[in-house]
Amino acid sequence: MAARPPDPALAAPGAATPERILQRLDWKVIRRLDGVLQGDYRSLFYGYGLDFADLREYQPEDDIRYIDWNVTARMDAPYVRQYVEDREITAWFLLDLSPSMDFGTVAAARGQKRAMLVDFVGTLARLLTQRGNRVGAIFYGSQAVPRKTIPARGGRLQVLRLMNELLRQQPLQRAPLTDLTPLLQGALNALKKRSLVFILSDFISAPGWERALALLNRRHEALAVRLWDPSERELPDLGPLLLEDAETSEQLYVDTHDRKFRQRFAQAAAQREAELQHAFKRAGVDLFSFATNEDLVRALVRLAMERRQRRHA
Fold first, then answer.
1. Which pLDDT score is estimated for 87?
2. How, if at all, do strands 240-244 and 49-57 pair?
3. 20 vs 23: CA distance, rounded Å
């Protein structure tokens, strides 16, 4: 019996149209999420816009980001601003499309970090716009390719536009090293209204970006989504290999049969992980890590649970 041809809606993002990607996400991800979360997406999206309502004296459980320092100085006691919720969310995606995001070892193209970024953004944008919210995006740029901004709008057409622009972005030329600071600083300057901001990256970057991230988080509700591949933490035993740096094109010949080399690699990866965790803690931003071999529905459910726990901690 002849094999059934694959559904074009389930094709890989690089080979599919925005419409087919959205169809695949609707069927394979969003419907499953509806069943698991039962329509309660506030765990994912509690970054509602806030309108100023009143001032009152600070209490120990209050969020220090809402302290009004001018009033505090005049009253000689800490005061916080009180807000009322605006049910409409404006969400922004800050998207790292640097060379290292094209790396992946899981299931060919579907395991690339960039492919997972496309699915993640498409799913969240679809969920947000279905509930009457607006989404926009800022793409990472280099000196050769200027940073691109898609203004925040609502509706299904906006999601399709976002997906289309993502698919059109060609891999950036390799440079000495990605620097995420201009992306974060650009968002800090561009976003005027308090928004829910997702930063999607592998955070393989020149140092110093955490200061811009901390400033961004003071004005908005920021959530860092780190995409990573399992082989970036632990090398498999595959014998002699020629490794190439995705950012700089530098090459190194290694023997992965060498157990001590694999251990040193794992130790270096663990140290980098600890440094990243410390950087996000200093910036006061929640970090959500998402592996290329992880099911997207399970990842989003895990995200919802983590955010619910942190909110009620």
1. 60
2. unpaired
3. 5
10-residue averages of pLDDT along the chain (313 residues):
37 67 93 79 60 73 78 84 68 91 64 88 94 92 70 95 89 73 92 92 91 93 92 77 65 76 84 91 92 91 84 63
Give the per-residue pLDDT at 236: 75
How far is Cα 148 from Cα 137, in angstroms, rounded to an integer? 8
Confidence at residue 44, expressed as pLDDT on a 0 to 100 scale: 72
Q: Could you tell me if 136 and 153 are in contact, meaning their C-beta atoms sit under 8 angstroms apart? A: yes
- The predicted structure's pLDDT at residue 6: 38
Q: What is the CA radius of gyration of the chain?
A: 21
Contact 182, 159 (CB under 8 A): no
What domains, with CATH codes, occur in the chain?
Answer: 19-46+87-311 (3.40.50.410), 50-85 (no CATH)
Report the distance separating Cα 206 and Cα 25, nearest Å. 33
DSSP state letters, 121-132 = HHHHHHHHHHTT
Instruction: Print burial letters for 180-211: b (CB count within 10 Å at least 16), e (below 16).
Output: bbebbbbbbeebeebbbbbbbbbbbbeeebbe
154 backbone dihedrals φ, ψ, rounded to 5°: -105, 175
- DSSP assignments along the chain, one per residue: -PPPPPPGGGS-GGGS-HHHHHHHHIIIIIHHHHHHHTT--TTT----EEEEEEEEE--TTS-GGGB-HHHHHHHTS-EEEEEEEES--EEEEEE--SGGGG---SSGGGGSHHHHHHHHHHHHHHHHHHTT-EEEEEE---SSS--EEEEEE-SHHHHHHHHHHHHHPPPPPP-S----HHHHHHHHHH--S--EEEEEE-----TTHHHHHHHHHHHSEEEEEEEE-GGGT-----SEEEEE-TTT--EEEEETT-HHHHHHHHHHHHHHHHHHHHHHHHHT-EEEEEETTS-HHHHHHHHHHHHHHHHT-
